[in-house]
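Re: the request from the purification team.
They wanted to know what the chain is likely to look like in 3D before they choose a buffer screen. I agreed to run a prediction and write the result into the notebook, where they can find it.
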Amino acid sequence: MKFRFNNIIFKILVVLALGIVGVTLWYTNNLANKFKQEEKKKVALWAKATKILSNINDVNDDIGFVFEVVNNNTTVPVIQVNEEGEIIAHRNIKNSTSDIVLKEEIELMKRRYPPIEIELIDGKKEYIYYKDSKLLQNLKYFPVLMLSIIGAFMVIVYFAFSNARIAQQNKVWTGMAKETAHQIGTPLSSLMGWVEYLKENTKNQAITQEIEKDINRLSVIAARFSKIGSLPKMEYVNVIPILAESIRYMKQRASSKVFFELISEENVINTKINKDLFEWVIENMIKNSIDAISEKGKVIITVKENDKNIFIDIIDNGKGVLKSFFYKIFEPGFTSKKRGWGLGLSLVKRIVEDYHQGRVNLIKSSPYHETVFRIVLKK
């Protein structure tokens, strides 16, 4: 319940972040458009002042004010040319000593804004080209900066949330596993003593042997649970016999209508694993396949290798998995069964990825045709 609540909180944070980004983009874009209009007015005013300066004989104009208008443009890059395209004046252009640079700037300005035309007293025309000031250009990049900051914040929040969730899961897994091993161990020790007594005092040794098998099985289960939460001992072994034994064990407990097969390119494929935990993984995967088969079906395990990895595919022709569940089936508590805790595949993922540094994925699923789970281990 708490896990779902945390998921809701995270989704709310994402929506809020996207809302902030949207509002920021809208506001900045609106502000940039206003700046753009103001700069256009400034250039138009500069053009008008230039026209007035061309007719200095007009005493009705305030020449001092006109000069002030022209000189006060310290931000907007402008270039003034005559009808022949010759550069007459320019302001706020970097490296303006070179005519090549100025002509390149004119070409850039042409692509952004149409020039402002000035009609002089003598009938000639001049043109003023301009582009956005550095202030306006920086304002346009402001949303990107804000988006980057919010994105970085969300990434940090996500990893913090993810690490907290994983830590919480680890604590639950470890506590549950240790407690389970402890609870099984206490009656198990007593049962072992009773088996030894039965061996000496019971004539029907067949029953005693079966009980002993079940006790040995419980010992294996207790050992598996005890390894969760601690660093298991890894050994370099051949996985083929382990897979064969897991199939044999599960076959005895499955319907006779389910066909089992192990297909391997080689008889010996070695890798570093913990035998007890790896057997647990394979048994869980096979049990998952058996549960997916209604009545009659097949479970096939194929093993392949390359220079770096070992690929173990668990294939069945059961009811399959919906595509929308491909990434959910490994989450703790998720199950499509009427009965079950939804811990089997989650346990598989934890053992394969955390303890064996491998990968486990659902490759494909076609209902009642072929569902393929793949385990990848390093050689």
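For the purification team: The CA atoms of residues 75 and 182 lie 77 Å apart.
Please add any questions underneath this entry.
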